[in-house]
Amino acid sequence: MTLAFVFPGQGSQSVGMLADLAATSGVVKDCFAEASEVLGYDLWHLTQEGPAEELNLTEKTQPAMLTAGVAVWRAWQDRGGPRPALLAGHSLGEITALVCADSIGFRDGVELVRFRGEAMQAAVAQGDGGMAAIIGLDDARVEELCASIAEDQVLDAVNFNAPGQVVIAGHKAAIDRAVAAAPEFGARRALALAVSVPAHSALMKPAGEKLRQKLAAMTVNETGIPVLNVDLEYHGGPDQIRDAVVRQLSSAVQWVRVIRKMLAAGADQIVECGPGKVLTGLNRRIEKNAADYAAIFDGGSLAATLETCKGASDA
Questions:
Q1: Structure pTM?
Q2: Which candidate in 103, 171, 196, 200 is catalytic?
Q3: Which residues are CB-neighbours of 222 under 8 A, at least 6 positions away?
Q4: Looking at 25, 91, 196, 301, which residue is catalytic?
Q5: Is 200 a catalytic residue?
C-alpha cells in the first residue's frame, strides 16, 4: 500500500472548520496559535466566528487554509499516522505540501501565503478580474472557447479539476462573454464564481514577480517527501522550488494530470488533508476505482483514515 497526501486550496474554507478535530487533537489550536503570532491577529477566532466575508478575503483565506492543512498534518503525525510517499496540493495547497515536506518552515509559509494573497489582490483592480466554472466540455473545447472570446483581453483555462470541469480566469468582461457563449460551445453549464482575483491566469504575472523577491529572502530546503508541483515534476532543490512557486501563480492547475501521475507512481491511498472534501470528490471523478480516496477534516475521519492506512508504506 502506497500513501499519498493532497492539500486543498481556496474554496474549501468555512466558518467553524476543524472545530471537531480541535476538540480531539490539541495540536490543531497550537498550530493556529503559532500562525496568529505571525499574522498579528487571532486566526482561530476568525475561522470559528467569522464573519465569512472576512475569512473569504484572499489575504485571509490563504493563511487560514495553509494553517488548516498543516494542523491536520500535525494531528496525523501526533496520532502516529504513516508517512506518505508523495505529496501534492491544489493551487495554494502546493505551498502547504512544501511546508509539510519540510521545504518551507511553517512560520515562513504563513507569511509567504499572506503576502501571496495580498500580491494577487493588488495585481488586478477590484472588479476587473474574475473566474468561472465551465461544466460539460472537454479541455480542448474550453480552450477553444477562451481563444474565440478573449478578443484583446486575458482569458485562460486555469483549473483542470476533473473531466468536464474546467475553471477559466481573466478580465471580468471576457469572463462574462465566455459564460454567455459557453452553451453555444456545448457546455451544460457555465457559472461565474464569487471571486475577484483571476488566479492562475496571465494577469497574475506581476504578483509572481513580487513573490519571487519574497522567496529570494526566505530559507527553502530540499523536500523531505517528494512534492508533485505545477509542472508535474518533483523538484527537490531550493532554487527549483522557488521558481515553481512563482510560476504556479500564473500557470494552470493540472489536477487531473496530478492525480493520474500519482496513481501511475503506485499511489493506492490518496488522502485529502484539510477542511472539507472538495479534492476527494474531484479525485473520484478523475479515476473512480483506481485508489482508495479519503479526507481528514474531523476526529472521526482522522480515526477512520488511520485505520485504513495502517499498512501504508513510508516515503
A1: 0.95
A2: 200
A3: 103, 236, 237, 238
A4: 91
A5: yes
